[in-house]
Design a protein that fits this description.
Elements lengths: L1 E8 L4 H14 L3 E8 L7 E9 L14 E4 L8 H4 L7 E5 L4 H10 L9 E5 L1 H9 L5 H12 L4 H11 L2 H16 L20
Parallel strand pairs: 1-4, 4-5, 5-6
Antiparallel strand pairs: 1-3, 2-3
Helix pairs in contact: 1-5, 1-6, 4-5, 4-7, 5-7, 6-7
């Protein structure tokens, strides 16, 4: 089972990202669940969502405390200890930011997080890509696509099928362009070999 926790703020499409990822998993013939966890229900408030993906049916429905992966839609949340809490160092963190990866790692180190060279952290400027293609600062689809490309858990074609279930016409075409651009922002299958049973160290 792969467990993913998504962090962002109200209005960034966190819940939609979780459901889109789960729907793409269904399109791949996998079993999946997605559900949100709301704090204060207002725009800009921190929100988290959870996704589980597995090859066989499962009955687990609790929140994800030890995720294999984090997807962070707002980089201001990246530096909060509760955001990184529980994520294993052998997993991966994908964040939306205009900052470079060395800048992110440096700021994490300054805030007391133990960051090694082999920690898997990927940065994508998803907000700018969304503005260019949609005219709106909604980074969710770009990050879902980048995550799929990094991990190889689901094919990009299945993500496009999932989008086609929700959108049509010009809106669909715009989202498909986001998917393709998001995939180009990262190294394809860069995190595929991370699937390991060794979970000995966490970031926070």
């Amino acid at each position: 089972m792969v467990e993913i926790r998504i962090h962002g703020r109200g209005g960034q499409g966190i819940v939609s990202a979780a459901y889109l990822l789960a729907l793409a998993a269904f399109e791949s013939g996998l079993y999946a669940q997605a559900f949100p966890s709301f704090g204060a229900e207002r725009r800009g408030a921190p929100i988290s969502a959870f996704v589980r993906i597995n090859k066989i049916p499962f009955a687990r429905h609790c929140q994800i405390l030890s995720p294999d992966y984090l997807i962070i839609l707002d980089d201001s949340l990246l530096f909060l200890r509760e955001t990184l809490l529980g994520v294993d160092a052998s997993g991966g963190i994908l964040a939306n930011s205009r900052k470079s990866l060395p800048e992110i790692k440096n700021q994490l180190s300054k805030r007391g997080f133990s960051i090694r060279e082999d920690h898997r952290i990927a940065i994508v400027g998803a907000t700018e890509i969304s503005l260019a293609h949609l005219g709106k600062p909604i980074p969710n689809t770009v990050l879902v696509s980048a995550f799929i490309s990094l991990t190889g858990i689901i094919s990009g074609a299945c993500l496009e099928k999932a989008l086609a279930r929700r959108f049509a016409g010009e809106v669909l075409e715009a989202n498909l362009s986001l998917v393709r651009e998001g995939a180009r922002q990262v190294e394809e299958n860069a995190w595929v070999d991370q699937a390991s049973d060794t979970r000995s160290q966490t970031y926070a």
